[in-house]
Amino acid sequence: MEFLSVIAATAAAFAAGAVYYGVLSDPWMTAAGVPHDESGKPAGGQTPLIFVLAFLCQLLVAGMMRHVFTLSGIDSLGMGLMGGIGIGLFFITPWIALNNLYGMRPRALTVIDGGYATLACAIMGVVLVLF
Questions:
Q1: Overall pTM surpassing 0.85 (yes/no)
Q2: Does a structural domain hold residue 79?
């Protein structure tokens, strides 16, 4: 059952990412320096492999969150939400910021990607405690 909760949490966060980056695609592509074609999509296209690898990366995060939640006794909706927000906002976002600082990337990229990391982890946290 725990493995299913990790899969469900990953799927929920991944779906939220589709909506989040769908809404913020133009500012994200500008901040990330991703060239786009005349239709507004990334030039050169995106292969399914990108999405598979993105899902697997999120699966690792959800699996580790499940492990940390179990060790920490996080088992209520509020605790799952706060735990997820804390992981996204205070673990993942600063690491994104660090990489972007050294890469001299725009602050907007950190805000967009850090916002998604926080949202995704919050969603994962809620889904993980629902199972």
A1: yes
A2: yes
